[in-house]
Amino acid sequence: MAAQSLDMQDVAMNGTRSNPNSAFRRLLAVIRELLGNPSSGFGLVVITILVLTAIVAPLIAPYDPNVIDLGNTLKPPSAEHWFGTDELGRDIMSRIIYGTRISLTIITIVSVIVGPIGLLVGTTAGYFGGWYDTIMMRITDIFLSFPSLILSLAFVAALGAGLENAIIAIGLTTWPPIARLARAETLTFRGADYISASRMQGASALRIIIKSIMPMCLPSVLVRITLSMATVILTAAGLGFLGLGAQPPLPEWGAMIATGRRYMLDNWWLVAFPGGAILLVSLAFNLLGDGLRDALDPKQR
Model confidence over 26-52: pLDDT tens digits? Predict the structure, then answer.
């Protein structure tokens, strides 16, 4: 009977095991709720456009983003070049379109890095407690005591300039808030009846953490990751602006602003359009994160 009760609890906690369509239906319900909210709907639409733009960039970009045309340098926005050209005659609109690929790459890789690290550190610290919890949380506190850009600069200085090293540096500085959140969630679940039942049945700590605790923490962690993406975009742009992120001729938005700042007094479009892209994407992720928080946890409204 105890084993049967545990199996029933596992099925209840993991609905997809008994009904493969339940996760898909839940996803559709979340999307409908996001689109029903003007703010989160706007964020979802903008991010969807970002993804589609990155995929079809070669098809929609009017020019090659790296082709130099010294006969068309610093041209203002026009019918020929909607966003104008830079100091080397390159089409700014094309460079911004291709820049979505770099931004999306950074977001994707950083999410893959920080999600598992933060979730693992937070859940294990919250579950085991004691000296392990103290050590992991003190390490987390050290990371949190520095602004993410400053800490990323330190890592990039040690690893060397470049897009790959910038992504690693941003990933290493973004996981602490996720770990803190996962730990807090774990502390609320650790004493639950179904966790105690799992222990009585001889389930290992690793199995309990992976099968029972991590799925319960996942919605909150997903919201936190979404909200962190705005900071990731700004940090990547900051590193690019300082010449420590993507290197020329890659059309990274922060690097475009760094190059254009020398001409911005007379040629405003050099910084306005890439800066607007950074602002729009950062705002979209913030709005989507707020919407996800409401959709996944209505008590937070």
Answer: 778 778 888 888 888 899 999 999 999
